[in-house]
Amino acid sequence: MNPLVRLHGDDRALFASDMHLAEHDLATVSAFTAALEQHGADATHLFLLGDLFDLWVGDDHHDAVADALGGCIGRLADGGREVWLMRGNRDFLIDTGTPTFSERHHARLLPDPCLIELFGERVLLAHGDALCIDDLPYQKLRAQMRSQQWQRNFLAQPLTGRLDFARNLRSRSEHEKQGKTEMLMDANEEEVRRVMREAGVTTMIHGHTHRPAHHRDELDGVTLHRWVLPDWDEAAGRGGFLRVDAGGWRFEAP
Ligand code: MN
């Protein structure tokens, strides 16, 4: 893998993920878009690493939530910033339409996983759900829904049918989560090591688990750094960014 983006000198990166923006929680939509405009103003590169939306049934579905984030991204991009998006497990159908969501808002799509370079260091970016390999039923569903055949069939259905399907899937997943242990839903440490070794990196950034942390792990005498991004929930007081510039790496409260 070659780095898709290289930051150096005065560049300033801002990372966020798991906003799960949805019509049933407009407080988080307002809070996140305001925070992104404010904190993003002082960045040159913005990376949104998946689950921007709690549901995404196709780029032809517009609502107030999509317009709010799209407008915010568009203003930041038009102001001279590079805005990069990654798909998550809830919004894995982003950018399957014509034009794509990214195209409409002057952003660009990152593959999951992918490599970037931050001030001379190769860094792996991922949403994070692929690391949770202990959750076998989820991984099976993931493989099925990421297939081209499944996506073609799904996107060929009328919008109302797609929305019904997605809402059912969401409530089923919320229900099943209650029976899953914390460990089952976290990143598998061995898988993290394997993925980082394969990519030839010692630093990784991901979201998905909603367990923000800077993990350090020793492997073959080298320290591996894994930065896990927080999710956003205005009512619960959760949210935040990771900022990386020539001065270093730190979490930033909204
Ligand atoms: Mn996720």
Description of the structure:
It is a single chain. The protein has 254 residues and is an alpha/beta fold. Helix content is 32%, strand content 23%. It is built from 7 helices and 12 strands. The strands form 2 sheets. Strands 1-6-7-8-10-9 form a 6-stranded mixed β-sheet, covered by helices on one side. A 6-stranded mixed β-sheet has the order 5-4-3-2-11-12, with helices on one face. A hairpin with a 2-residue loop joins β9 and β10. α1 packs parallel to α2. It is globular and about 50 Å long. The mean pLDDT is 95. Bound molecules: manganese (II) ion. The site of manganese (II) ion has 8 residues, from loops.
What's a concise summary of this model?
The chain is α/β, with parallel strands linked by helices and about 250 residues long. It has seven helices and twelve strands.
